[in-house]
Amino acid sequence: MHFSITYLTDDKGRRKAVQIPYAQWRALQKELETVRQEAALRESLTNAFQDIADMEAGRKPKTLAKDFLDGLDKELAAERLAEQRAVE
Known about the structure:
Number of helices: 2
Strand order of the largest sheet: 1-2
Number of strands: 2
Radius of gyration: 22 Å
Oligomer: single chain
Shape: elongated
């Protein structure tokens, strides 16, 4: 992505801030959100595979599918609540 950058400088010409067009800012925010979601998914999958390995090795008790899904429901509800609070 090519940016149209404007530098804001102080009275001695030192760069103090950067300005980019709003459309580019929105595109950057969207890309950052995608990267964050991908990182969260990678972390979640890594943890899941580690949990499976731990269960198979007997280091962690096996989880019933129902208990696992109930836990996911609780996590999703907590995430939604946090997102709603962040917007308010």
